[in-house]
Design brief:
Elements: E1 3-5, H1 10-18, E2 25-28, H2 38-43, E3 46-49, E4 59-61, E5 65-69, H3 74-79, H4 81-86, H5 88-95, H6 100-105, H7 108-113, H8 121-127, E6 131-136, E7 141-146, E8 151-153, E9 156-157, E10 164-171, H9 172-175, E11 179-185, E12 196-205, E13 208-217, E14 224-225, H10 227-233, H11 242-252, H12 263-282
Parallel strand pairs: 1-3, 2-3
Antiparallel strand pairs: 4-5, 5-10, 6-7, 6-10, 8-9, 11-12, 12-13, 13-14
Helix pairs in contact: 10-11, 11-12
The protein binds flavin-adenine dinucleotide.
Length: 283
C-alpha cells in the first residue's frame, strides 16, 4: 500500500525519511512532471508532498549569493522584484515555461530533478554556476553540489533514494555586470517544450568579450555547457570567424532526431543561435 505524507517542517521531513530508508520514496512538488509519469508514480511506496514546508519556498538575495528554495514556482521567480534586477536571465526562462497554470505549479527543483535535457532552468543555472543544496540521507546532512556534477543522463541524477533538493545557491559575483541572451525554439510561441535552446551570460569590456558562459538545451543527453566555444570567444574582440564558431558549437553537441525535431535541424539552429547571441553583443 502507498503512503502519502505532507510534512510541515524540514525536521519532520528528515525524521520521516530517516525512519523509512528502505522504502521507495518519491517527492511531489508541483506534480506537472510527476503526475504524467505514471510509471514513476506507481513504483513509489511513499509519496512525500513538499508543498506544506514553507522553509523550502523562500528566495533571499545577499551580497555574495542568491538562495532559491526548492519549491519556489516559476511564478514566484518571475514575480520576485530583486531577481528581475539581479538575475533577469532566470526570470526570463521561468516566464517562458509552459502556460500561466503550469508556471503556478511548476517548481524550480522539479525542473532540475526531472533532469530533462529540455528543462528551461537547467542551462540558466548552469551558466550561472549554481550549486544545489541536497539533503543526503546516507550522511544525514546537507551537501552543496555544483550543478554540472548533478546530471547523469536524461531523467538521471546523482540523487539516491531519500535524497532531496533543499534549494539552490547562485554566486552573485558571476552575475555582476553581465548581460544575457536566452533563445528557446519550440513548436509554438507558448506552452511548448523546447526543440532546442541557447543560453548566454556575458560581459563586454572595451569592445572585447571579457567573460562568456554558454549552454545549450535539448541537444545532448544532458544540458551542455559549450566550454570549447566559450574558450574560443573569451577575450576576443568580436571579430570571430562565423564558420569557426559554428564548427565549435557543432562539435560540442550530440542531438538526436525525435518527435520534436531532427538531429540536423538542432545542430544547425543551435550554431546559428549562438551567432545571433554574438550579433546581439555587437549592437
Ligand atoms: C503542459 C506542460 C508544459 C510544460 N512546459 C514546460 C516548459 O516550457 N519548459 C520546461 O522546462 N518544462 C515544462 N514542463 C515540465 C514541468 O512543468 C517542469 O519540469 C516543472 O518545473 C516540474 O516541476 P514540478 O514542481 O511540477 O515537479 P514534479 O512533477 O512535482 O516533480 C518532477 C520530478 O522532480 C522530483 N522532485 C521534485 N521536487 C524535488 C525535490 N525538492 N527534491 C528531489 N526531487 C524532486 C519529483 O520526484 C519528480 O521526479 C511542462 C509540463 C507540462 C505538463
Amino acid at each position: 500500500m502507498k503512503t502519502f505524507i505532507s510534512p510541515k517542517t524540514i525536521s519532520e521531513l528528515n525524521e520521516f525519511i530517516s525512519n523509512n530508508k528502505n522504502r521507495n520514496i518519491i517527492f511531489l512538488a508541483g506534480g506537472t512532471d510527476l503526475l504524467v509519469d505514471q510509471e514513476k508514480f506507481n513504483t513509489a511506496d511513499i509519496i512525500i508532498d513538499l508543498n506544506k514546508i514553507s522553509e523550502l519556498r523562500n528566495i533571499s538575495v545577499y551580497c555574495e549569493k542568491i538562495n532559491i528554495g526548492s519549491t519556489c514556482t516559476m511564478t514566484d521567480i518571475a514575480k520576485y522584484k530583486q531577481l528581475q534586477n539581479i538575475f533577469p536571465l532566470l526570470v526570463n526562462a521561468a516566464t517562458n515555461v509552459g502556460s500561466p497554470q503550469i508556471r503556478n505549479r511548476a517548481t524550480i527543483a522539479g525542473n532540475i530533478a526531472n533532469a530533462s535535457p529540455a528543462g528551461d532552468t537547467i542551462p540558466v543555472l548552469s551558466v550561472a554556476e549554481a550549486k544545489i543544496r541536497i539533503f543526503n540521507l546516507e550522511k544525514n546532512k546537507e551537501l552543496l553540489v555544483p550543478i554540472n556534477k548533478f546530471f547523469l543522463g536524461p531523467g538521471q541524477t546523482i540523487l539516491k533514494n531519500g535524497d532531496y533538493i533543499v534549494g539552490f545557491e547562485v554566486p552573485s559575483k558571476i552575475l555582476q555586470d553581465c548581460e544575457y541572451a536566452f533563445y528557446k525554439v519550440g513548436q509554438r510561441q507558448a506552452l511548448s517544450i523546447s526543440k532546442l535552446s541557447v543560453t548566454c551570460l556575458y560581459q563586454l569590456s572595451h569592445k572585447k568579450i571579457h567573460k562568456i558562459r554558454m549552454a545549450a538545451g535539448s541537444v545532448a543527453p544532458t544540458v551542455k555547457r559549450l566550454y570549447k566555444t566559450e574558450e574560443y570567444l573569451q577575450n576576443s574582440n568580436l571579430s570571430y570567424a562565423e564558420n569557426e564558431v559554428m564548427r565549435f558549437v557543432k562539435s560540442e553537441i550530440e542531438p538526436i532526431t525525435d518527435v520534436r525535431s531532427t538531429e540536423e535541424y538542432r545542430k544547425e539552429i543551435t550554431g546559428r543561435l549562438v551567432l545571433k547571441c554574438l550579433q546581439e553583443m555587437k549592437s
